[in-house]
Specification:
With about 350 residues, the chain is an alpha+beta fold. It contains 17 helices and seven strands. The N and C termini lie far apart (about 50 Å).
């Protein structure tokens, strides 16, 4: 049987097409192996039934198939008998588990630089999950996207990401961020027992994201190092070049959707900006399992969620900013996205 660490990196991007496999760096699981020791679960007991050893999760450049990653998490929760394992895992997360991506991130000058670099090289962290940063006035919103189904351990993975990323950010800046966090699934029965160990969470929201004051992005990092940043970034660039450009194309297109005047660029304008024909652009996006209209729809949804937090904007003004011809069109789209109306969402 081929060892999971022998599986080559898969093609990044969201969503993936048939035949492609998501992968996760093995180092992300190292804190989990350490956490379960507190329940007297040894690394051998956790990993051997899956054909792995403890050194496999600390190998610098090893990657696991997403299915193996989920199997380890599921087995860990079963062995410890603690459903809130994701919170404990997140509290043990260190930026170093992401290898050169972690070193590059911690070497940037500000938190904004760190987030933007993490987004730029996201596939190195995992191809199964993504990050997106949106700004609206004085509010920053960091979206945590899911490109693959995490099944029964979705809550473990989500809590580990949220708690881990926020803990890393506060460690690197030496300051508290005071975020508001929204999660796209119902509140687990165990959450109240451990609410004091995680940031305040709101459940059953349309997306999973952390919101915080935009000024937080300008917090300097205590570990900033321009020389280390250049060296680590160069290594990240080389590693990313081994992966498909498909995911980078989707992110590039999303960055070009808005024309700066509140409108959406046409397919020909976007195609011209990336030096391809509209037909070629459409074919490349289809190969990634998406389309320009789907990306526009996602962007409108994300911007709507941000704009609705601004009480000075009327619903009609928000609809206009998003490029809808009428408030009714915006309301129909918002109900399709969230199952509720913009007014009801704003009240909640």
């Amino acid at each position: 049987m081929a060892r999971p660490t022998d599986i080559p990196p898969s093609i990044p991007g969201a969503p993936q097409t048939a035949g492609e496999r998501h992968t996760v760096p093995a180092g992300v699981l190292f804190p989990l192996v350490e956490v379960v020791k507190h329940w007297n679960v040894s690394p051998d007991e956790l990993l051997e039934p899956l054909g792995l050893r403890e050194q496999d999760v600390s190998a610098p450049e090893a990657r696991f198939a997403h299915s193996v990653y989920l199997a380890i998490i599921e087995r860990a929760r079963m062995l410890v008998g603690e459903p809130a394992l994701g919170i404990f895992w997140g509290l043990q997360m260190r930026v170093s588990v992401f290898g050169y991506l972690g070193f590059a991130t911690m070497s940037t000058a500000t938190l904004r630089d760190a987030i933007e670099l993490a987004i730029q090289f996201q596939p190195l962290g995992t191809t199964a999950e993504g990050l997106r940063l949106h700004m609206d006035g004085n509010v920053a919103s960091l979206f945590l996207e899911e490109y693959a189904d995490a099944g029964s351990v979705r809550d473990v993975v989500t809590f580990a990401r949220l708690v881990g990323l926020l803990r890393i950010a506060e460690t690197l800046t030496g300051r508290e961020l005071h975020p508001t966090v929204e999660v796209a699934f119902p509140e687990p029965s165990y959450y109240r027992r451990f609410a004091h160990m995680a940031p305040p969470l709101q459940f059953e929201r349309p997306t999973t994201r952390a919101l915080f004051a935009a000024e937080v992005l300008d917090y300097p990092l205590t570990t900033a190092d321009p020389v280390a940043l250049r060296l680590a970034s160069d290594r990240c660039t080389r590693e990313l070049s081994l992966l498909s450009a498909g995911g980078r194309l989707v992110r590039k297109v999303r960055s070009l959707l808005w024309n700066g005047e509140g409108g959406v660029r046409s397919p020909s304008q976007i195609a011209r900006a990336i030096h391809v024909s509209p037909r070629t652009l459409r074919r490349h996006l289809e190969a990634q399992g998406t389309s320009l209209s789907a990306l526009v729809d996602q962007e409108r949804r994300d911007r709507a969620l941000l704009l609705l937090r601004s009480p000075e904007l009327s619903l009609a003004e928000i609809a206009e900013r998003l490029g809808y011809r009428s408030l009714q069109s915006f309301e129909r789209a918002f109900r399709r996205w969230t199952g509720t109306t913009p007014a009801a969402y704003r009240r909640s």
